[in-house]
Design a protein that fits this description.
This protein is of the alpha+beta class. Helices cover about 60% and strands about 15% of the residues. The protein folds into two domains: about 120 residues, Alpha-Beta Plaits (2-Layer Sandwich); about 45 residues. The protein contains six helices and five strands. The protein has a five-stranded antiparallel β-sheet with strand order 2-3-1-4-5, sandwiched between helices. Helix 1 crosses helix 3 and helix 4 packs across helix 5. It is elongated, with a radius of gyration of 27 Å.
């Protein structure tokens, strides 16, 4: 890799660190090509990405970003999982590491905060952003539906009383 390619890689990684909300540092020890491709495919399907990195270049790319505190995690064979959705990369990385012992989660960053392996596993258990949005919309719609029922209810009750009174008058 020549100097120009290294500069492009550092700039690209810096852009990733600038736009991502979650970065997870992993150690992919002995992953086969098929396993790596499977992990990349899963990440892509969930809106996240997985990239094997060069430590020295990654440390350069971290400078001046909100994830600069991750610099110490880059030693030995490393790869990063990242996403704009603060849950997507965590879900896939944790599930994959549970299924495959060759991927170790070292730590990461959520927004500007450092997170350890336990916190990443907790993040993975959270519902996705889309699921949370659906719940919020459902909660907002529920009171409106109840309000309509309450408003319609007195009118319906009044109509039944009038009908019952009319039925009594006809019977008499």
């Amino acid at each position: 890799m020549d100097r120009m390619q290294k500069e492009e890689l550092v700039a690209s990684l810096n852009g990733v660190f600038g736009s991502a909300n979650l970065v997870i540092v992993t150690r992919p020890s002995g992953l086969t090509v098929a396993e790596s491709n499977d992990l990349r495919r899963r990440m892509s399907e969930s809106g996240a990405s997985f990239k094997v990195t060069k430590n020295r270049l990654t440390r350069l790319a971290l400078r001046g970003t909100k994830f600069e505190h991750l610099t110490d995690l880059f030693s030995g064979p490393t790869a990063i999982a990242f996403s704009e959705d603060p849950v997507a990369a965590a879900k896939v990385a944790v599930q994959f590491s549970d299924d495959n012992e060759k991927l170790e989660i070292v730590g990461g960053g959520l927004f500007e905060n450092a997170v350890d392996t336990a916190e990443i596993k907790t993040l993975a258990r959270l519902p996705s952003l889309e699921a949370l949005r659906g719940k919020i919309v459902g909660m907002l719609n529920t009171p409106a539906t109840r309000l309509v029922r309450v408003v319609q209810s007195p009118g319906g009750q009044l109509a039944r009383v009038v009908q019952a009174h009319a039925a009594q008058s006809e019977a008499a």
